[in-house]
Automatic annotation (TrEMBL):
Lineage: Bacteria, Bacillati, Actinomycetota, Actinomycetes, Mycobacteriales
PANTHER family noted in UniProt: CBS DOMAIN-CONTAINING PROTEIN, CBS DOMAIN-CONTAINING PROTEIN CBSX3, MITOCHONDRIAL
InterPro entries the UniProt entry points to: CBS_dom, CBS_dom_sf, Diverse_CBS-Domain
Annotated CBS domain residues: 80-135
Record bears the keyword Kinase: yes
Gene3D superfamilies: CBS-domain
Name of the protein in its database record: Histidine kinase
PROSITE patterns: CBS
């Protein structure tokens, strides 16, 4: 694979510094949306298990709104995605960006030594490339 840029060769772990945000599976979608706003994140792990089984994103909540679901009664676990995509913490930013594009997804779970180390978003990856572009124009 050809590298997109110099920063693309950095490990993805360089952009996964924040603790993983979580919401209880029984939390309502309204509570989940409030938690996302409070934590300033676009996706959260659903449940407290060491190995996550589901991820809920802003997009999942928007789909629920669009389909007329009651955000106060529908639970996070009922709309969360269970098709989780993982990468190793040592994967490059370019590799993860390609994985996101190939699978048309916005969030990838990052693991180190079999343990969830973070979640990386398309915005995180884009931010790395934009930072490099700003330096190139300086």
């Amino acid at each position: 694979m050809t590298a997109f840029s110099a920063v693309g060769n950095l490990p993805i772990s360089t952009v996964t510094g924040d603790p993983v945000a979580r919401v209880a599976g029984h939390a309502s979608l309204a509570d989940t949306a409030r938690a996302m706003v409070a934590d300033n994140v676009g996706a959260m792990i659903v449940g407290d298990d060491d190995t996550p089984g589901a991820l809920i994103s802003e997009r999942d909540i928007v789909r629920a709104v669009a389909s007329g679901m009651d955000l106060n009664t529908v639970r996070a676990v009922d709309v969360a995605s269970t098709k989780l995509v993982w990468c190793d913490a040592d994967a490059t930013i370019d590799e993860v960006a390609t994985q996101m594009m190939d699978r048309y997804i916005r969030h990838v779970l990052v693991e180190r030594d079999g343990v969830l180390a973070g979640i990386v978003s398309a915005r995180d990856v884009l931010g790395v490339y934009c930072s490099e572009a700003e330096l190139d124009f300086s």
